[in-house]
Amino acid sequence: MNFERLSPRLGFLLGFAACAGLLGIGAYLQFVEELEPCPLCISQRLAILATGVVFLLAGLHNRGRRIYAVAAAAVALVGASISARHVWLQHLPPEEVPECSPGLEYVFQHFPLADTIKLMLTGTGECAKVDWTLLGFSIPAWTLLAFLLLAAWAGLQFVNGGGQPDRE
């Protein structure tokens, strides 16, 4: 595929479609396969949603291509850092895994917002559990790869003029 001929609008909308697909996979794993998401999984889903919103806005707005590309890459890299922490937790020796916390619903109801956000971004013992793998990689490892690919795709949109002059 010749990316130089791909319009930036279509490129951003393809990025949005990828994010929507990732959220669909997450919903399938949760509701069909009955894999309950941990706090870091939920944080990763929120980062995918945020990345998708930036891609969608860029595709609909069709101006400021480079600004949107940088924003999408930045949000995707934040998501990648959350995924990297999750992968790191999954590879800790059992004696170094943090303790499990109360359920997220309980935490939202009884803890201050700052503590809840900290819990969602740092993870707990249940985040270290590997429930599912594909080709030897856990869900957070695949999500890390997806975030890195989304950031790279955003980078391509930064340089992709689609044969048109910049309309910044």
Automatic annotation (TrEMBL):
Species the sequence originates in: Methylomonas koyamae
Q: Where in the cell is it found?
A: Cell inner membrane; Cell membrane
Mind giving the lineage of the organism this protein is from? Bacteria, Pseudomonadati, Pseudomonadota, Gammaproteobacteria, Methylococcales
Ranges that cross the membrane: 12-30, 42-60, 67-88, 139-159
Q: Which InterPro entries match?
A: DiS_bond_form_DsbB/BdbC, Disulphide_bond_form_DsbB, DsbB, DsbB-like_sf
PANTHER family, per database record: DISULFIDE BOND FORMATION PROTEIN B
Protein family membership: Belongs to the DsbB family.
State the function annotated in the UniProt record: Required for disulfide bond formation in some periplasmic proteins. Acts by oxidizing the DsbA protein.
Coiled coil region boundaries = none
Q: List the disulfide bonds.
A: 38-41
Q: Which membrane topology term applies here?
A: Multi-pass membrane protein
Cytoplasmic compartment ranges equal: 1-11, 161-168
Q: Which GO terms describe its molecular function?
A: electron transfer activity; protein-disulfide reductase activity
One Gene Ontology cellular component annotation held by this UniProt entry? plasma membrane
Its name, as the record gives it, is: Disulfide bond formation protein B
Which segments does the topology annotation call Periplasmic? 29-46
Gene it is expressed from:
dsbB
List the GO biological process terms. protein folding
